[in-house]
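Bumping with the actual sequence this time:
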Amino acid sequence: MALEIEQSERQGYWVIRVAGEVDLYTSPELRAAIVKSIPRIQCEAVAVDLSNVAYMDSSGVATLVEGLKMAHERKLRFHIAMPSAAVLKVLQLARLDSVFPILDILR
């Protein structure tokens, strides 16, 4: 399944909306979006909307961890927004649900 990524500013967040599957083959697309966005955004926080992600493997999780580190280096907050049940389960299994601030909704 192809990965779709859209980005926009919304109420103080730079929102990266992701749809599809984030795996070994597609995670480089998500990484590129995060790496290109973080240095240029004018917001104080990044929110990665994972509500339409059907599947995520460890490469997707690693991409999110890398994004979190990049954001913190630039004094930005990094959130996971509305993760799908499949993504939330992966984050919980990796015990990262306590590392990433999770937003239930985007304002």
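The tokens above came from a reply further down the thread. Residues 11 and 107 are 7 Å apart (CA to CA).
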